[in-house]
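Colleagues,

For the teaching module next term, I've prepared a clean inverse folding example: a structure given as tokens, and then the sequence designed for it. I'd like students to try predicting residues themselves before seeing the answer, so please don't circulate the second half yet.
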């Protein structure tokens, strides 16, 4: 196998020139480029970058939604021995400034006017940044800055450059090898500034190639590229594995059309974080509530059949003739139409990762015959640490070690791994590199976990977040939060308990799910804040908390972690307010500081607490909202393992 992506692209253009490589939906019509066409586009753009002075080792920012030209820009950058640095398209200018300046980026390739404006705003503070190239020309007519260029203009320069220097690009591509830097991906930064993870071509090509072999991915697969390009998952599934296996990747028309585009493409290879699967199931539940009584009865009847038969059928286990016929009828009337509506009719392999997925949600999809599996990984691992083999899929574990990966667990319960995917270093941060990766290549994940009796890894929580109650017993907040988020009406949760006597929680409701529920129950509301304060909503959440507590009471390790008091926040936790990362991970220290008064109220005898909070609006303005929040007691249960609940 070729050891860099430009080399792989040249080989694809030679061996599979007319096979589809990438699609984009534009004005409702799917446009397709073959591998030969992609190669031509990449080489033209690479020539244009070379004409602008981009050279080996330079860093190039990539920012925007999933667009073919942005993927081509990555390949073109790599063709020169330079390094692409994709960043989150929804980042505000201040967040983008850090990445652009820290990475020493000399050029940025952006999707549109919005992203261009952000780069122009921060350009005076980023002395290395010399040029900005935009894809979409809409709104760009009045820009006279001679450092701002259209994509077509750069390709036109590339055509002239390549004609004048016919051997230049091939020589640069040949100079690059597997050990060289392929990409820098910035982590989400839950406790501070994000770190730039430097991944080599060997990291990418070997790890992605192992995944291709394990799942028998071929050029006949179809995938939808909708995840942020700054995320390692998109880079592996939509770029690296596409090049290696030769399959076609489709870019949605816009983030708003992803669900429709998913149905039209019908991918065979699919990845989504648990929240996407949860939201899809929520939408199904809402639609069924509006269905006619006969349809509801049919749906519930055949879903009961699926629960009993579907997973055994998917895993090739014996089922009776009657069960087989009943499931066939269910597939005809319910499962098939439902999978078609979800865009999952053709899925052969589906992954989920990032956090735990609810067993009920996981089993729901598998019972429909969708081969969804959990993986566990990190940016620093080039995503793959563990994976679930087809015949060893469990709802409560993340599988076994991925190919060529070694895993060990130290005395504190922290998970360590080493593999061909282990990152080279954190860019300009040797101290953090040395803390994370030792001289033998073992990487500290920061996650606490253990192996079960089958040799499958089970992740409990972030090691730094695992604490202890005042009685010395384990406190694993993420584990409890994930249980709460299994309910469609709970969007987010943050639990507290470290160095406390009991567990308490903040809750964010899901505005869509609870809004539909409120309308059906004739509960008027005008805003998230008003809906969240409704007594009926508190009762809905209280019942969910009780269900979680009942489940915890049966866990010998965590029966003492039942939630005793909770409140529903008056606003949704938001990345723009610093409460979440761009990948929607909770920034616990920030929340503990911002909402300290609410936390203390949860641990008092108070039944309400006033708070005023600064919020950021979409246009960048700041404002304040205030509320007198109700604090509710939760129902707890005696442990089923011989001790009282905390």
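(Answer key — instructors only)
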């Amino acid at each position: 196998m070729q050891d860099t992506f430009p080399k792989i692209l040249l080989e694809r253009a030679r061996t599979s020139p007319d096979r589809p490589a990438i699609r984009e939906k534009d004005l409702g019509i799917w446009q397709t480029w073959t591998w030969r066409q992609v190669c031509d586009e990449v080489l033209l753009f690479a020539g244009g970058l070379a004409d602008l002075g981009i050279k080996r080792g330079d860093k190039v920012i990539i920012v925007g939604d999933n667009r073919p030209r942005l993927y081509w820009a990555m390949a073109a950058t790599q063709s020169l021995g330079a390094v692409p640095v994709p960043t989150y398209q929804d980042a505000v200018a201040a967040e983008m400034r850090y990445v652009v300046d820290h990475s020493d980026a000399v050029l940025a390739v952006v999707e549109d006017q919005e992203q261009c404006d952000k780069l122009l705003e921060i350009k005076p503070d980023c002395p290395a940044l010399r040029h900005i190239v935009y894809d979409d020309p809409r709104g760009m007519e009045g820009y006279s800055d001679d450092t701002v260029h259209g994509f077509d203009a750069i390709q036109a320069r590339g055509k002239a450059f390549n004609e004048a220097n016919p051997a230049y690009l091939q020589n640069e591509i040949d100079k690059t090898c597997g050990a060289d830097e392929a990409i820098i991906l910035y982590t989400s930064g839950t406790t501070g500034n994000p770190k730039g993870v430097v991944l080599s071509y060997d990291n990418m090509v070997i790890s992605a190639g192992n995944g291709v072999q394990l799942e028998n991915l071929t050029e006949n697969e179809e995938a939808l590229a909708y995840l942020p390009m700054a995320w390692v998952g998109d880079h592996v599934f939509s770029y690296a594995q596409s090049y290696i296996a030769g399959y076609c990747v489709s870019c949605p028309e816009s983030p708003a059309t992803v669900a429709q585009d998913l149905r039209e493409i019908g991918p065979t290879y699919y990845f989504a974080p648990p929240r996407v699967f949860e939201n899809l199931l929520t939408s199904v539940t809402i639609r069924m509530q509006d269905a006619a009584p006969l349809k509801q009865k049919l749906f519930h009847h055949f879903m009961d059949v699926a629960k009993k038969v579907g997973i055994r059928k998917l895993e090739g286990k014996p089922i009776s003739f009657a069960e087989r016929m009943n499931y066939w009828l269910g597939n005809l009337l319910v499962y098939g139409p439902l999978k078609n509506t979800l865009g999952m009719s053709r899925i052969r392999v589906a992954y989920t990762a990032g956090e735990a997925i609810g067993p009920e949600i996981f089993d729901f999809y598998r019972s429909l015959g969708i081969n969804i599996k959990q993986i566990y990984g990190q940016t620093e691992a080039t995503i793959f640490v563990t994976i679930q083999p087809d015949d060893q899929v469990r709802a409560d574990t993340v599988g076994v070690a991925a190919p060529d990966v070694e895993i060990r667990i130290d005395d504190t319960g922290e998970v360590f791994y080493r593999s061909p995917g282990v990152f080279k270093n954190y860019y300009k941060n040797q101290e953090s590199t040395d803390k994370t990766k030792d001289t033998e290549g073992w990487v500290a994940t920061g996650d606490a976990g253990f192996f079960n009796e089958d040799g499958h890894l089970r992740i409990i929580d972030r090691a730094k977040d695992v604490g202890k109650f005042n009685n010395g017993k384990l406190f694993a907040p993420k584990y409890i939060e994930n249980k709460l988020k299994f309910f469609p009406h709970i969007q987010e949760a943050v639990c507290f308990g470290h160095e406390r006597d009991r567990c308490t929680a903040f809750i964010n409701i899901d505005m869509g799910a609870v809004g539909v529920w409120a309308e059906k129950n004739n509960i008027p509301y005008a805003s998230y804040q008003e809906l969240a304060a409704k007594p009926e909503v508190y009762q809905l959440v209280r019942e969910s908390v009780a269900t979680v507590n009942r489940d915890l009471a049966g866990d010998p390790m965590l029966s003492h972690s039942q939630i005793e008091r909770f409140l529903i926040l008056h606003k949704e936790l938001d990345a723009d307010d610093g409460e979440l990362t761009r990948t929607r991970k909770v920034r616990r220290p920030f929340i503990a500081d911002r909402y300290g008064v609410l936390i203390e109220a949860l641990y008092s005898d108070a039944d309400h607490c006033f708070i005023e909070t600064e919020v950021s609006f979409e246009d960048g303005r700041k404002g304040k909202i205030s509320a007198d929040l109700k604090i509710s007691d939760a129902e707890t249960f005696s442990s089923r393992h011989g001790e009282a609940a905390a």
